[in-house]
Amino acid sequence: MKKNIALFFILILNFLVLTAQDLSRVKLDIDTLTSPAFHGRGYVNYGDSIAANYIKNRFQKIGVSPLASLNNYYQPFTIDINTFPNKMLFRNGRKELTPGKSFIVHPDAPSFKGKLKLFIPDTLIFSNLEKRSAFLKLDLSEVALVLDAKLKQKIKFASTELRKQIYSAPVFIWLIEKKLTASLSNHQKFPLEIDVLKDSIDLHALNLKINIEASLLKNYTTKNIVSLVKGTSQPDSIVVICAHYDHLGRMGKETYFPGANDNAAGIAMLLQLAEYYKANPQKYSILLIAFGAEEPGLIGSEFFVKNCPVSLHQIKFVMNLDLVGTGDDGAMVVNGSIYKKDFENLTKINETNHYLPIIKARAKAPNSDHYHFSENGVPSFFLFLLGGITAYHDVWDVAATLPLTRFTETYKLIQEFVNQQ
Length: 421
Hints:
The protein is an alpha/beta fold.
């Protein structure tokens, strides 16, 4: 009996040591990918290329092989992308606001430099004929129009004449209540639009100075990073495990978006699975893909599917990992309600081992890199974790506050699910 108890505690200790070692490597990967030297894994200062090189080197050290048809793990492609590499000045009266924390420019923002007056239109312009008539006569060419973000729908459904007048202002300032959320664009358009936290701006200080430098990069080369663990008995059948590595990059010289949960955590999970499958090859081949250019519109995964270095018919299943740094409230599986048998299998594994509190199913959605696979007939899941931190597409998505609550459990869940394909 004592021997059995001792053996039990040795097994538990070994498990805890292994988990600690895995999480130590996970945290190192996340810390590195979110560091200032990676520039938010965007397109200013080649942050995407720095991240791609890091992932390629990790694949090499792990010992997973590149595909023979690709050049040194890389599958390059080009994108157009709007960037903000330099000036990012927003001075309201005597107060200079901080990009990322107090304001963000819209992703399609053009360059703009100038001094303007703040102008807050009466919201009655949408309902009162007299107020609207007076507003239509104003010259807005030298003002920054200040509007509550809640009015966007009213503007959308306003008359053509009123919308034309509103958009005659060179700068829009949208007042945001709680959270700034950034994104990317492949073009620029006027007017310049800026989201500002309502508590950050002094609406009584009418003088506004703006100096925004935008640079639209045409045919910018970025890449997917692809590696393979060959199957032991059926190598021509493939299971894909993927995660995107790019993020939002920089907004000016001082501000960058770290992207710890989105999606350094997904890449750290991908690398852990690469380690596992290198040591434990399955009967099917495992294709491990770090996708580029997910943030500007799932471009890397779309390019991969359209120029697939293997036949899509060889791919049995795709497991896409994004936002896997939390898990307090379980997980959501996009396409879970489409591929019901696979979802039932996933939930059975979870219920047997008590990995996550709950796994919820969702219908299809074009919200991550699984999408172009499933749209082309390849069964695909997008798994993301729920609960915990709310940081998303902002400067607060940092490694230091990423809890990794159910990271190890999710790692084991994915292993078992993939191994049963």
